[in-house]
Amino acid sequence: MLLCRFDDNRLGVVEGDQVKDVTEALAVLPGYRYPLPVFDPLIAHLDDVMEKARQLLPSAKSVSLRSVKLLAPVASPGKIVAAPVNYLKHLIEAREDDQIHHSNRVEEIQRAGLFLKATSSLVGASEGVALKHLNRRNDHEAEVVVVIGKEGRDIPADRALDYVAGFCVGLDMTTRGPEERSFRKSIDSYTVLGPWLTTMDEGVDHTRMPFTLTVNGELRQQANTQDLVMGIPALIELASSFYTLHPGDLLFTGTPEGVGPVVPGDRIHVEVAGLGAMDVAVRAQ
Fold first, then answer.
1. Do 46 and 153 sit in the same domain of this protein?
2. 74 lies in a domain?
3. Given Cys at both, which of 87, 89, 136, 139 links 257, Cβ 3.0 to 4.6 Å?
């Protein structure tokens, strides 16, 4: 199922160029009182929501996909985990380009580990990227994103997919500079997630996902998840060996070579086979 969040926090099922409005399916979610949970309620109860959505689909109102504002399909992730330099050619370019490394030592992912991005940086495709610090280089990074489906700690790689709710297209924006990654990548709107959540029942092969990124029609990045240094199961194993993963947590799996700057007025197009495509407008903050 392709689940999107659109307009004023409505829930939709994407079918071709149409969105079926199944917002009533959210009624199956339990109510929470303070203190609120550290997980995303929809993802935590995804099976129940999907079952109700299937019941609603035959009579659901259809709207054109082009006419809706696409929000981040996961509204309330407890954390956003990201994998640095997880494609070998990107590691090489990061080490060779001083505009990328800024005299920081760029370690292999096995030594660097993972990092966290602020959840306040999360937006949907239609919300766009608002660039900050325009006196610096601001780069695009296309990524495949894993959405964690259930709580887990110390998850072995051979069971990792049991903990996955689905996949999304991701755009990890970064301001170049000497500071730590998580600081430069946590600016408001610098984590774009979309266009919808492709759930596991769609049968997408996570080991072979070709994807591309263009800026104003110019091809900048092209890769395949088969080239990941650490594959998705290994990333989940690593992440869960340091902290508990919760439903709705996002795992950005890394970007390939070809990262480059964007400026206000640019339009970024990211497409992942089997997951869809999103167009993201760039503006000044």
1. no
2. no
3. 89
Domain that holds residue 50: 2-69
280 and 219: one domain? yes
For residue 270, tell me if it sits in a domain.
yes
Tokens, residue 182: 């998580």
User: What does each of the 285 residues of the chain score in pLDDT, given as a tens digit?
Assistant: 999 999 999 999 999 999 999 999 999 999 999 999 999 999 999 999 999 999 999 999 999 999 999 999 999 999 999 999 898 776 677 677 666 656 666 778 888 899 999 999 999 999 999 999 999 999 999 999 999 999 999 999 999 999 999 999 999 999 999 999 999 999 999 999 999 999 999 999 999 999 999 999 999 999 999 999 999 999 999 999 999 999 999 999 999 999 999 999 999 999 999 999 999 999 999
Q: Which amino acid makes up residue 237?
A: E
Contact 244, 148 (CB under 8 A): no
